[in-house]
Amino acid sequence: MYSSCGALSEATSVFNSMPKNNVFSWNLLIGTLSQSDLYTHGAQSCYQHMQQKGIMPDQVTFVSTLSAFSDPKDLFPAHQLHTCMQSNNFSSDSIVGTALLNMYGKCGTSQTARRVFDQIQDKNVISWNAMFTVYTQHNDIKAAFELFSLMEMQGFIPNEVTFITFLPACTSQGNIAEVKRIHTRILHHNFESSVNLENALLDAYGKFGYLQLAWSVFIRMPERDVISWNVMSEAYLYQALNDEAFYLFYQMQEEDTLPDDVSCVSVLSACVNKVTLMQAKRAHIMLIHSEDELDVIAGTALVNMYGKCGYLEGAQQVFEGMPNKNIISWNAMIGACAQHGCKSRSLHIFYKMLEKGVRPTDATFFSLLHACSHTGFVEEAYHSFLMMVYIHHLTPTVEHYNCMIDLLGRAGQLDEAEAMIHVMTCPTSAASWAALLGGCSLHSDIDCGIRIINQVIKTNPENAAPFVVLSNIFASLGRLEEAEELQILRKTISNQQDVSVDFDFCEGEYIVN
């Protein structure tokens, strides 16, 4: 009883109190230990202790002990166990052999697992499926399909687990031809009534963008569960068909299928992409009807949705009403405020988050910098940037630097913005120079623009954007001739290959070196 309930201390206590232990009681203890992630090595030790006591292992002993090996570092004791199995003539047994090849799939190589598979005398569909799983885990899809052909040649009939194993592997390999081949085999073996298998097929077609095939599978399903509806909805969302995804959410409930967290997040994603506040509010109402209280996933999705739909007060109400929040929830609320330029509110939520003991991430600081950038709060942005690096020990990404460059450029602090580019701890991007150029354009700073063009010529001469921006600066100052000559220079440079070029502007003339 204690073993089946997973009560380790009680099971061990009962085992130790028994006057004499037989193979059955040892198997129960080994099985209990192997099922616990914390005591898998205890199962291995228990097996060794059993041998020291002179108890002969049986089929169950080996299967239970093998399930405790799941890491490459377990390979040496696993080999020892394999040797013991061979000496007891168990390695060719179908059940033990299947457990053994599963173990080698986790700890070793698919080649070792295949050698074990070939030694199994009385193979069954479970043995074949286990070998298929090992091949797919090791991304050896070709070997898996070759084995599948061998399976059919030898007269073994695949079951739904066989096909469910193959379909995700085909999807990850981008092999739609094999998905269609498997679909044909499913029809041939009359497995259309399996909802799990149909869901896997639906998911494969959806991820390849074959919506008509996905829909034909969906409408022909004799039975649909919530996963079926979710997978079909996500297939539409992959193709940005948000109205269709939203319709499925309604249709699912009309057919008395209760939505789950995935359903809710999908419909909220449809609202975000469509940016329709009316639909967002309807989705929120349906969410309230389907759940007693919003969990962290659905609540965070609602905050995101309202933020992107422009309804900041709605996002705030949902956020404050969430019983549990994680860092993603906090980031969503800070991001919603930042998106609407509410710098003070973003900072207020940020400091409240710190008071709750929640550790910020780089996404948190990106939202803060974004809020400061669009409201011109240079000092607060510097403070947030330094806090990120020196207090929370986070490494800024190019996006963080670009936010700072954009902010400084907007504020007219072009020298500081240019200096920020030169101290970046990560490679600059085209967006970095574009942000600085934006500041040059805003403040008509020709000298800074020329310095940027010289940098771009050295690193990315094909990038025409700096020339266009600087040309526009000249044009805005009424210096049309210089603007036109700059465009000619850009075309000249783009036609030259492997040539080092520098240029300057002096007394109305370009100097090209």
TrEMBL record:
InterPro entries: PPR_At4g14850-like_plant, PPR_rpt, TPR-like_helical_dom_sf. PPR repeats lie at residues 22-57, 124-158, 225-259, 326-360. The keyword Repeat applies. Keywords: Repeat. One of its GO terms (molecular function) is RNA binding. It holds the Pfam family PPR. PANTHER family: OS07G0578800 PROTEIN-RELATED, OS08G0340900 PROTEIN. This is Pentatricopeptide repeat-containing protein. The lineage of its organism: Eukaryota, Viridiplantae, Streptophyta, Embryophyta, Tracheophyta.
